[in-house]
Every structure is written in structure tokens, then in C-alpha cells.
Design brief:
The chain has one domain: NAD(P)-binding Rossmann-like Domain (Rossmann fold, 3-Layer(aba) Sandwich), CATH 3.40.50. 46% of the residues lie in helices and 16% in strands. It contains nine helices and eight strands.
Length: 254
């Protein structure tokens, strides 16, 4: 690898859950690189705000709707698909979890991931396309207060491997990669909810708990890391990448 940088200018990029949190930070970074971005989310007001502020295309809908995934991929034909949308898990110890709360990340994150990955393979997306699946550091060491969240995020990581096998067998040339933030990000609803729950358990403030991860990583920092993964050939062939404020991008492949 010679480290040569590629450009995102003019490339079609579709981001699910791109109207807030990490997804919005990524959309901002993509727009700064002059990518042609389409944002998919459920909240019409948030989508309208993102469209007005950043000039992106938007599509309102439920990311677990397989027909929506099929239609948008056929219409947009993205060269980059980022599956960022997900449910905020119910925060409670195992014995206090309901099945509905426990399974929410599976019924949203994994279900949506399966459908979008299937449609990317069936269409298929163009040779050389990239599909990024949003996982979590919880997939490495677990997350005892978030029900089925850690298992769901590990499943998405494994799905990237499975999809790469299918892509290779069918000679499609699509690369699937898992993105694993390795710290809670307090500037997102998900990160704040997690920090508050674990801080309470430890008897500290959320700020003290978050400081334990080291250097903070903002949503825009996250977006800049993703842009680097997409444009630097160093990261073109790997399957799993960890992101952290202190260390930046690290390969998590065995």
C-alpha cells in the first residue's frame, strides 16, 4: 500500500440514521468532501433541518423496511453505504430487562443490517463499492446494562465477514466493513444514556465516567475517521476497524 488518498467528491453516499448523533457527524464530514449524500431516517423534522443546513438529499422511512432498502439502493446506486441507524437499548441489569427492551437492538440494528446487506448483494452494488456496518466496542467485551445490545453489535460485525464471503464467491467486488467505536460518546443520545447508567452504577458523575475512556471523540471526529477509512487505501481491505479518541483508527482483524 502506498497510502495514496482517494477522493469522495461526486460519489454517491447513502447514510442511514444520518440526521443526528454519529450519523450526522459523518454526514457533515462527507459534505465537506463534496460527496453526494442521501440521508435516511424516520424523523421528518430532523431530516428537513439536515437537508436545509447541508444541502443533502433525504428519504424518510423505517430502516427495517426491506422494500425501502431495495428501492433506495436501486434509485441512489451508492458507491458507499453506511448502516449507522440503530435503537437506543433499554438500560437495566439483566434481571430487570423485558424481552421487548432486551431484543430491541436485534429487531432494529440487526434486522436493518440484514436487509440492507442482502439488497446490496442482490442488486448488486457496483464493483468497488463499500458497505460500512455500525458496530460497537460492546461487541468486544460486552455491556451488562444494555440487554441484547452487545450481542447484536457482534452479529453485525460477523455479518460483515459473512457478506465478504458472499461477495467473493459471486465475484461482486463489494467490500463490507464493520466500524467499532471503542468508547462511549457523550455527545450522542446513546452515549449519554449509557454513560448515565454506568456512572450511576459506579457512584460517579457521567463526566467522570466518560473521562475514563481518555480523549473524547465527538460525532464529527467519528465522521473524519470514517472519511479516512473510505479514502486511504491503507483501510481498503480490512474488515473491522476500531475508533478511539486516543488511538484513532486501529485494525481489529485477527
Amino acid at each position: 500500500m502506498d497510502g495514496k488518498m482517494r477522493t469522495l467528491e461526486g460519489r454517491h453516499v447513502l447514510v442511514t440514521g444520518g440526521s443526528r448523533g454519529l450519523g450526522l457527524g459523518l454526514v457533515e464530514a462527507l459534505v465537506a468532501r463534496k460527496a453526494r449524500v442521501t440521508v435516511v431516517a424516520r424523523d421528518a423534522a430532523r431530516l428537513a433541518d439536515v437537508q436545509r443546513r447541508l444541502g443533502v438529499a433525504v428519504a424518510q422511512g423505517d430502516v427495517t423496511d426491506q422494500a425501502l432498502a431495495r428501492a433506495l439502493l436501486c434509485d441512489v446506486r451508492p458507491s458507499v453505504l453506511v448502516l449507522n441507524a440503530g435503537a437506543t437499548p433499554a438500560m437495566a441489569p439483566l434481571h430487570e430487562q423485558t424481552w421487548e427492551g432486551f431484543s430491541a437492538p436485534w429487531n432494529t440494528d440487526v434486522k436493518a443490517g440484514l436487509f440492507w446487506v442482502q439488497e446490496a448483494l442482490r442488486l448488486p452494488l457496483a464493483d468497488g463499492s463499500r458497505v460500512l456496518l455500525g458496530s460497537s466496542g460492546a461487541a468486544v467485551k460486552g455491556s451488562p446494562l444494555s440487554g441484547g445490545y452487545a450481542g447484536a453489535k457482534r452479529m453485525l460485525w460477523m455479518m460483515a465477514h459473512y457478506a465478504n464471503t458472499v461477495s467473493a464467491e459471486l465475484h461482486l467486488g463489494i467490500r463490507f466493513q464493520a466500524i467499532i467505536p471503542q468508547q462511549m460518546i457523550g455527545d450522542t443520545d446513546l452515549g449519554r444514556a449509557g454513560a448515565e447508567a454506568y456512572a450511576k452504577r459506579k457512584g460517579v458523575t457521567p463526566e467522570v465516567f466518560l473521562a475514563g475512556f481518555g480523549k473524547p471523540m465527538s460525532p464529527r471526529d467519528f465522521g473524519e475517521h470514517i472519511v479516512t477509512i473510505l479514502t486511504d487505501v491503507t483501510y481498503e481491505s480490512g474488515t473491522a476497524f476500531g475508533l478511539k479518541g486516543d488511538t484513532g483508527i486501529v485494525s481489529l482483524d485477527d
